[in-house]
Design a protein that fits this description.
Elements lengths: L1 H16 L3 H4 L4 H17 L2 H4 L3 H9 L8 H9 L8 H20 L9 E4 L10 E9 L5 E10 L2 E9 L2 E2 H37 L1
Antiparallel strand pairs: 1-2, 2-3, 3-4, 4-5
Helix pairs in contact: 1-3, 1-7, 6-7, 6-8, 7-8
């Protein structure tokens, strides 16, 4: 279950990474996510290095197209929760930077597991005036379909993703619990240090 969640989350993050602002300003959220899901799936399937698990190639794919239409400030502040307002601007920047690295490093390797999966989208349940929507989809391959939902918000520069639901679990809520425990025990600087160390460990293990 965890492996399936990892590669589906990786697909979601990579899909978000490919979003171009010029499209985000003119496309409806469900049209945008569907088109980009198709593009990312095609790119992964066409790259033998990614399919073979080349971590450098996978990290480059995700990292170089770093989510221009994902609201990382909101994603990070939501994950940190009530402690976010206690953080200084510098701490907030450090939290956002380390959280971004964590997501990229955590899910990058799972992209190599994406092979013959397809993504189907469910009908949108939103009004024209809504500024926040959920785009619901399923990833189909071997085994049971995997739920994959996107929360998006409408901004002056287009629609932006700020949370992902994989197998019924929202990513931000998962990290909020972990971060709250760490901050309660070690403070905000303690969380930053823990994230930094975890990112360094992940980088070292993937390099070895």
């Amino acid at each position: 279950m965890l492996n399936r969640r990892s590669w589906v989350a990786a697909l979601a993050i990579a899909t978000a990474s490919w979003m171009a602002p010029v499209h985000a300003a003119i496309e409806a959220p469900e049209v945008l996510v569907k088109r980009l899901s198709d593009e990312v799936m095609a790119a992964i399937k066409a790259d033998p290095a990614i399919q073979a698990g080349d971590l450098d190639r996978i990290v480059t794919l995700v990292d170089t197209k770093i989510m221009p239409n994902v609201n990382f400030a909101r994603m990070t502040s939501s994950a940190v929760g009530r402690f976010w307002r206690q953080a200084t601007p510098e701490q907030q920047k450090q939290l956002q930077d380390e959280f971004k690295i964590l997501l990229v490093r955590t899910y990058s390797g799972a992209l190599g597991e994406v092979k013959d999966q397809t993504v189907s989208f469910k009908p949108m349940r939103a009004r024209a005036e809504d500024i926040e929507v959920v785009v619901r989809s399923e990833v189909r391959g071997r085994g049971e379909p995997v739920q994959l939902d996107y929360r998006l918000e409408k901004t002056t520069s287009g629609w932006k993703i700020y949370d992902l639901n994989v197998l019924g679990v929202w990513l931000v809520e998962t990290y909020r619990t972990q971060f709250a425990q760490e901050i309660s025990a070690k403070g905000i600087d303690g969380l930053i240090a823990t994230l930094s160390q975890r990112n360094k460990s992940n980088s070292t293990s993937k390099a070895s």
